[in-house]
Amino acid sequence: MLILLYHFVVPLLIGTLKLHVMASITLILKDNKTNEQGEKPIYLRIIKNRKTKFISLGYKVHPDLWDAGKQRVKKGYPNSTRINAFLAKKVADAEGIAVTMETTKKYVSSRKIKEEILGGASESIIKYMERYRDDLKAKGKMGTHDKVVAVLAKLNEYLGKGDLTFDEMDVQFLRRYEKHLREVKHNGVNTIHSNLKIFRKVFNDAVREELIEPVLNPFLKYRLSTEKGKKEYLTDDEIKAIDELKLTEGSIMFHHRNIYIFAIYAGGIRISDILQLRWKNFDGTHLNLTTQKTKELLRIKLPTRALQILELYAAYQPEKTETDFIFPFLKNDMEYTPELLFKAISSNTAYANKNLKEIAKKASVQKNVSFHTSRHTFATRALRKGMRIEYVSKLMSHASIRTTQVYTKIVNEELDSAMDIFNE
Questions:
Q1: Gap between the Cα atoms of 91 and 97, Å rounded
Q2: Which of 80, 76, 81 is nearest to 64 (CA)?
Q3: Are residues 247 and 372 in the same domain?
Q4: Residue numbers of the domain that contains 367
Q5: One domain for residues 295 and 316
Q6: DSSP 322
């Protein structure tokens, strides 16, 4: 009888124990995430039913300073006593959570334990970015919305059908992804910067919303890099050549030339603001507007050449109302939603830039002219003529005077070149 019990009951008990094997929770160093100094990050490893999950603890250590047997850093590690107390507490907390879950729930996976330790499901950065994208559209911020759409498309292509949580987008992931953008997508330095800047914004928002711990933000250690592009601007002679170029009056190229010259004299205002100017924004001497990009209220006194251009367009519209657009690009009778307005501005900007290149060619201006060069031209001319840098910064609605200081450097380089005449 005892033999029968041994053969039937004991295997049953062993099988039951296998089904309810306790989770294994240990501290490890992840070899595949070694940095240039040879340090490896410390992770909490959870194994349950042969499935493994990892939680980053935010610290790195060189293997020489890690005691794998005792799962602790050695005395040579900075603040080793405090760090070891932190690590021991994390293990104890995790084991406590695992035991509680295993004794109260029918089925427990390593993923469920990880989610419980993190205080809920590890947030998907993909889903978070999708909500951010939708929120931008609802607020009418279509420029940023389209950037997020493009960044998400690249990220999803890289991941395939996989998801990505905040704790998985660490410094090592960013390095691999930057390499992918550079070597596979052939993106330039500034394009890569623009992509990763979206991720940085998302992480900062998630930290502020307390969705993730600050220690999980890889941008505390990962630095974005940019390269300075050449700021093209026109000389007075080049401005005159474009301004006096004979073009068919009333043609689209004629209008594009006029708003370009207007921008050079009217504080370098952006084409997005020029396209939306209505007669109510002009009081006879000043423009009064809220800029689309920065939402800053500007009052700009117009010099003679800018006033002459407005007089020309006033003559074209003898029955104009204050709500009519000054320049003939947007439709007066159109109700523009944020999405429609963004598309209209984008298409008009592309068309203007195409025509400006042709205009520059016709005027024998050997420079890569786009509408944005009107801003560069205004800034350099204003500083050359002695306008104080803080005034230039205000008129151009720069977020920081540091942005405007780039133009000071250009002017100073011109002065340096001028002094070279004494070497001739």
A1: 10
A2: 76
A3: yes
A4: 236-423
A5: yes
A6: T
- The residue type at 91: V
Q: Which CATH number goes with the domain that contains 368?
A: 1.10.443.10
Is 228 a domain residue? no
What is d(CA 260, CA 264) in angstroms, rounded to the nearest whole number?
A: 7
Whether 150 and 169 have beta carbons less than 8 Å apart is answered as no
110 close to 45: Cβ distance less than 8 angstroms: no
Tokens of 307: 């006033």
pLDDT at 168: 84
CA torsion through residues 259, 264, 267, 270, sign: positive
One DSSP character per residue, 150-192 reads HHHHHHHHHHTT---BGGGS-HHHHHHHHHHHHHTS---HHHH
Give Cα 79 to chain centroid, integer Å. Answer: 36
Residues 249 and 372 in one domain: yes
> Interior CA angle at 12 toward 9 and 14, to 5°?
110
Number of domains comprising the chain: 3
On whether the CB atoms of residues 72 and 59 are closer than 8 A, the answer is no
Mean pLDDT in consecutive groups of 10 residues from the start of the chain, 424 residues: 46 42 83 83 84 81 90 88 88 82 71 66 83 89 90 93 85 93 92 94 88 83 80 90 96 96 92 95 92 84 94 94 96 91 92 96 94 87 78 70 64 60 61
> DSSP secondary structure string, 19-44?
HTPPPEEEEEE-GGG--TTS-EEEEE
Listed in order, strand segments (DSSP E) in 231-384 are 286-290, 297-301
- Length of the chain, please? 424
Shared domain for 149 and 85, answered yes or no, is: no
Residues 166 and 76 in one domain: no
Residue 8 placed within a domain: no
Phi–psi pair at 419, nearest 5 degrees: -70, -15
